[in-house]
């Protein structure tokens, strides 16, 4: 897929980050992952992101990363574009980006580099090296220690024609709007904070109508309906779902660090599409938390 084709695909609709399937021994379960993507690809997401945050990229072994990307690309070929997450330092990120491109990924999402703070210039060099290493489209992701400003992004966009997207995982509206106004239609823009639905309406107002939904992993019909309600300005439906599902959902999610991913895996399990346990350093939901989540999911009706 050409970078501009990917930019077009990411400029509308709903995105998602499938969880990654691990078996009881904690090994990557390609069969389960393929079934998951076959199921999710029928709900009309504009793109699916393999090995993203919700996909536990940070816990994948470098030897199993290509298996995850290959499974996603082969399963979704011809139905929905697969964007592959890459991360860590520049050398590892470039190696992963080249692997993902060779395996047929439609694009690359640059997850934050690891641990250290870094200057805008250094992060720009990091992103530019990744862009230069592939021909497919690249999306830069402000999150954690990666916090690029509008002027840095403008220089990167001039230097890297295949840099076609910006994803926000920080939630600083002044920064987001400054980037959106400075970059105009040069990028496709995506919201992607934990439980993106909370930010969907204000981000749409800021000129970012597209976001990635983690809950799409277990309530895809509701996730699509929520996105359609935001898009239509149906505030009654948006507020009703925020009050009845997302607020109590967030109350569970906020109980322990890392639950933003663990709760999604628990939800998938509760709807019969289990993906196995999370890998450390994450922990799975406690039994009472699973029960509370199950009640919330039941209240939404069939998916
Ligand atoms: O790796 C990531 O950024 C994500 O998984 C983003 C999530 O989809 C986030 O938007 C969410 O939790 O709804």
UniProtKB/TrEMBL annotation:
Gene Ontology MF annotations: 5-dehydro-4-deoxyglucarate dehydratase activity
Keywords associated with the record: Lyase
Pathway: Carbohydrate acid metabolism; D-glucarate degradation; 2,5-dioxopentanoate from D-glucarate: step 2/2
Protein EC: 4.2.1.41
Top-level taxon of origin: Bacteria
Matches recorded under SMART domains: DHDPS
A Pfam family per the record: DHDPS
Keyword Secreted found: no
Reaction it catalyzes: 5-dehydro-4-deoxy-D-glucarate + H(+) = 2,5-dioxopentanoate + CO2 + H2O
HAMAP family, per the entry: KDGDH (MF_00694)
NCBIfam families attached to this UniProt entry: KdgD, PRK03620.1
Family, similarity comment: Belongs to the DapA family.
Protein name: Probable 5-dehydro-4-deoxyglucarate dehydratase
The species this protein was found in: Azospirillum oleiclasticum
